[in-house]
Every structure is written in structure tokens, then in C-alpha cells.
Amino acid sequence: MGKEKIILTGDRPTGKLHIGHYVGSLKRRVELQNSGSFDKTFIFIADAQALTDNIDNPEKVRQNVIEVALDYLACGLDPEKSTIFIQSQIPELCELTFYYMDLVTVSRLQRNPTVKTEIQMRNFETSIPVGFFTYPISQAADITAFRATTVPVGEDQEPMIEQAREIVRRFNYIYG
């Protein structure tokens, strides 16, 4: 028996999903879910991550969690085939993020091209919220907690996947 094939993907509930989301990722998720190629499919709403740059408007995030969940169902994601969950409802993700934080340096986070770009986009150059700055570590926890073997992301997120690999390698080296 081979290694279990597990897919993990999700969205930050910072606004309503739109046709760009459908064309860019949701349509593909439905195809992957229905392909029979995966033993498990996890699709999550990253509300904790959304708060990292929306801390002043938690109601917006809370309301968009509901909207994203409804959009998932409307576009064909099936709770009978995929586990759909809300990130903040899995406390172990926060715990794993906390452990991983000790494995990553500030300078390494600063070198992440995606983080650099997003800091500029959000005008955080002079004052970066710690939660926002460390969200690549949170993403690594999301990926590893579910033992994901496939994490479909856009090109802009590839540095995050590489950083997750680094964290896991270091964790496994230290803790076996």
C-alpha cells in the first residue's frame, strides 16, 4: 500500500469570492475532489490567517466565513467528498504554529518574496503585525497537520510552500 494521497487547500475570508476565484482555483478544486485521485480532500476557510491583516474588522471576517462556505457549496465542493472546515476551529493548528515559530528566524521570514510583496501591498513597511509576518509558519502548520501531499497554490504562494518544506525538514531533523 502506498502513501496516502491528501490534498489541502483553502481561502482567506477577506471578501466575497468572485469569478476570478472560480476560474483561478475553485473549478480546479471541484475537479480534483471528483477525480478519485485523492484519499482525502481538506478544504479550509483560513479565518485565523485573515485576521492577521483584518484585526480591526473581525465581523467582516466572521461574515465572510459564512459567505465563503456557501460559495464552496454553490460551486460544487461536496461535504460528502471533502472535509470543509474553519481554521480557527482546530486548536491544534495554533499549537503546531507555536512550536514551528522556534524553527524560523526573523531574517528568513524577511527574505520570503511573498511576504515582502504583501508587506508593501498593505503598507506595513514601518509596522508589521507579528501575526501577519508569521503567517507562512501558520501555513506550514496547516499543511503538515493534515499530512497534505498536494497543496495547489498560485505561483505567488510557491515561496510559502518552500518555506513549509524547510520548517518540516528542520523539525524532523531535531525531533526525528
Automatic annotation (TrEMBL):
Domain of life of the organism encoding this protein: Bacteria
UniProt-listed PANTHER family: TRYPTOPHAN--TRNA LIGASE, MITOCHONDRIAL
Pfam hit, one: tRNA-synt_1b
Recorded GO CC terms: cytosol
UniProt entry tagged with the keyword ATP-binding: yes
GO molecular function (one): tryptophan-tRNA ligase activity
EC number: 6.1.1.2
Family membership: Belongs to the class-I aminoacyl-tRNA synthetase family.
Organism, scientific name: Bacteroides uniformis
Keyword tags: Aminoacyl-tRNA synthetase, ATP-binding, Ligase, Nucleotide-binding, Protein biosynthesis
Protein name stated in the entry: tryptophan--tRNA ligase
One BP term from GO: tryptophanyl-tRNA aminoacylation
PROSITE patterns: AA_TRNA_LIGASE_I
SUPFAM superfamilies in the cross-refs: Nucleotidylyl transferase
